[in-house]
Amino acid sequence: MSNRGRLFYLDALFDLQLGGFPFRNLKQSSAEMSVLFGLMGSAGDRVLLDIEIPAEYLEYIHSAGLSFAEPFHDGDCSSFQAVSWGWNENSLKRVSQTGAEVKCPDLSIIRRCNSRAFCHEINSKYGSGVPGTRYCQSIDDFGSALDSLKDSFPLVIKPTFGGSGYGFRRLVSHVPVNSISDQLIPLIEHGGAVVEPWCSRLYDLSTSVYIEPDGSVSSYRHQRFLANRHGAFYAILLSPEDFVLDKYSPVMEKHVKPAVEELISAGYFGPAGFDSFVYTDRDGIENIAPVIEINARFSMSDIAHKVRNQCAPDRYCLFRMISRNRCSLPESYAEFNRLIADFTFCPKNKTGCILLTPLRTRYGNNSFNQPFRNAFFIAAKSLDDLFNLDSCLQNSLSKK
How far is CA 221 from CA 57, 272, 337, 378, in A? Predict the structure, then answer.
């Protein structure tokens, strides 16, 4: 990265756009999420936003000891270098309107590297995914996959594009493929899908790297993330000590390294993340699927690490999301701090809770409203204290 100022842009619809899925109803929530990428910046940087945020938000963020890129909406950024969450036609068009310098692989390379078809190719070559997984591009492919996996039900069907459990379909028992063709045809039209045996997950893990244009790779960083039973992400756990990562990071790195080399061979450079999970097999034996998904883009773990490094580097930390349907936020930050009382973040002790997204944002001509999804950062001196703080936070903000 050069010494020029950086222009950050996060389009949370990146994965859906690659697959050509409809997203009209998600535009506002996606725009609201873009503010989180500002936490990756510092003085001299800018974050490109499609929402309006109050000045009080930046005052609150700075009071917690965090840096934030200058909010930017339209105008000239020709002296800045663009840093996009992920590059596709939409993000390239939006960033190009500012004149910022863009350095990225060809979009066809990015599309290929973000597809589950590409990940399946790598897993088939190196034995990295869930055993028995099949990739399907036609009804006949699905029929063959269901027949070959008839002793492995339940199964999960994952569209070629999309993240965080989007579009997953679970089959609990064998059915004639024609009886579910109406569910499969849209998947085929959007690039196909993988079919894999459903696993009883114990832990969700991930590995992050950054690939430079010359093919050099930064250090491998591992973290745990928390997902619901459908595979949808809701939190990232960062710990000074983690027995799960201590046990599994060597095998994760062993399988991620050849996947990184495949990305480089495909012509990709930039941020990349590799999801894994630990599960119990049908014999009750603990096992790991070390590369179940490749994301050729930034991830929320990048933001989580940046926040932790600034305000709580040696603490047990949780970066977590809570939907507007499950929490009610007050109008002011003083009121928010009173509401969470004793677990307001203390920069001196490096413990407590920080609200990373604004209390209110404005999208288009709408009035200021609480975002659809709210991001929090929680830091504590022990794992027990961390989850106790998380529980207290949720109880304090829960809708009665």
Answer: 30, 11, 33, 20
Q: Residue 294 and residue 115: Cα distance in Å, rounded?
A: 8
As a whole number of angstroms, the distance between CA 337 and CA 53 comes to 19
Taking a C-beta distance cutoff of 8 angstroms, is the pair 377, 300 a contact? no
Cβ atoms of 113 and 266 within 8 Å: the answer is yes
34-47 b/e with 16+ CB inside 10 Å = b?
A: bbbbbbbbeeebbb
pLDDT at residue 164 is higher than 70: no
Could you tell me the CA-to-CA distances from 180 to 186, 202, 366 in Å, in that order? 11, 30, 41
**Radius of gyration for the alpha carbons in the chain, expressed in angstroms and rounded:** 21
pLDDT over 70 for what percent of the chain?
98
Per-residue pLDDT of 241-296, as tens digits, reads 999 999 999 999 999 999 999 999 999 999 999 999 999 988 889 999 999 999 99
Cα(80)–Cα(129) distance, integer angstroms: 39
E strand or H helix at 390:
helix 383-397
pLDDT digits (tens, 9 = 90+) for 301-334: 999 999 999 999 999 999 999 999 999 999 999 9
* Tokens 């990739």 found at: 135
DSSP-based three-state secondary structure for 192: coil
**130 has pLDDT over 80:** yes
